[in-house]
Amino acid sequence: MSIPADSLTIGAVAKRVGVAIDTIRYYEREGLLPAPLRRASGYRSYGEGTIAQLRFIRRAKQLGFTLEEIRELLALSADRQRGVKAVKQRAQQRLAALEQRIVELQRVRDGLAQLVESCPGHGAPEQCPILRALTDEVPA
């Protein structure tokens, strides 16, 4: 199999996309990227398609998608029949999960803010409301 003249090394791809070389290797092992062609020297050789896929993966991760969800999105992106509808459904599911996580984080923030407000910031450690809240047994 011949290697295209415009093929890129793993270092060049990593630099263009802004990821570590180990990240590219990891995505290959996880099946998010196809196995690259190999030069006669054994070095990996990549084309522009790999750069597009890596950017897709990176942006999907920034939006909170897991690697498994990204694998599904990549597969759906090639599905001409139901791809767009299914991608929208996955995005709606991710959005709902993020909204639930935001509610949980706001609850945690409010509880921590209340502890910080009630702590005088001086005195005996056993009187600190923050330390008491962390060490006291919480009913199940």
UniProtKB/TrEMBL annotation:
SUPFAM superfamilies with a match to the protein in the record: Putative DNA-binding domain (SSF46955)
Domain HTH merR-type residues, every copy: 7-76
Keyword Transmembrane helix: no
Alphabetical UniProt keywords: Coiled coil, DNA-binding, Transcription, Transcription regulation
Entry-linked PROSITE patterns: HTH_MERR_1, HTH_MERR_2
InterPro entries attached to this UniProt entry: DNA-bd_dom_put_sf, MerR-type_HTH_dom, MerR_fam
Transmembrane segments: none
GO MF term set: DNA binding
Coiled coil: 81-115
Name of the featured protein: MerR family DNA-binding protein
Organism: Rhodanobacter ginsengisoli
Lineage: Bacteria, Pseudomonadati, Pseudomonadota, Gammaproteobacteria, Lysobacterales
